[in-house]
Amino acid sequence: MAIEANRVLLKQTPDKIILDRRCCLPHISLAMGCIDRRNIDGIEHVLRNLASSHPIEMLIIEGIQVGTNAKNEKVSLLQIKKTAQLQSLHEAVMKELGPFFSYDVSGHMILSPQPVDESTLIWIRTYPEKSSFEKFNPHITLGYGHVEGVSFPLEFSASALVLCHLGNHCTCRKILTSIAF
């Protein structure tokens, strides 16, 4: 559904965020930061433990939220209900992976075929202060523009905890490791 909604948005704003199942995954960000590639095995171990200790059953999409970014561009999101279960998983991921994270990000660290927007770097640098713990806002970014015509609420299930190499606009561009729920 997220990919289909993204296709509608691409008619309004082409080439910004192009979701698909391989190199730009629809996702809910539970944490964000920079890591050393040498720590991927350690992170995978942590994610494996978290997937077994924090199972996620059904998630609920409450609706579409349209906001604006720093450039005053409209961005559409699927707003996910913040359940105690999802909040607990987010907090556990932030706490357990915190020692692996740095927030000293630069454009060359981002996997992107186009120049990296400064807003991407700002989002990563400020994730702990602006988007975590009590400020956690679970959502799936659909893309730039405004999309309508979907009935809510909708239930779905998450299939895995995934560590991804981030792309421009904080997209999930490359799976580094994936742990099934």
Keyword list:
single chain; Cyclic Phosphodiesterase, Chain: A; 181 residues; alpha+beta; 5 helices; two-stranded antiparallel sheet; 6 strands; 28% helix
Overview of this structure, please?
The protein is an alpha+beta fold and 181 residues long. It has one domain: Alpha-Beta Complex (Cyclic Phosphodiesterase, Chain: A). Helices cover 28% and strands 24% of the residues. The protein has 5 helices and 6 strands. The protein has helices spanning 2-10, 40-53, 84-97, 118-125, 127-131; strands spanning 58-68, 74-80, 139-144, 154-157, 160-166, 172-180. Strands 3-2-1-4 form a 4-stranded antiparallel β-sheet. It has a two-stranded antiparallel sheet with strand order 5-6. Helix 2 packs antiparallel against helix 3 (84-97). The chain is globular, with a radius of gyration of 16 Å. The mean pLDDT is 95.
Question: Strands, helices and their partners?
Answer:
Layout: H1 2-10, H2 40-53, E1 58-68, E2 74-80, H3 84-97, H4 118-125, H5 127-131, E3 139-144, E4 154-157, E5 160-166, E6 172-180
Distance between the termini: 21 Å
Write down the CATH topology.
Cyclic Phosphodiesterase, Chain: A
Output mean pLDDT.
95
What's the Cα radius of gyration? 16 Å
Structurally, the number of domains stands at 1
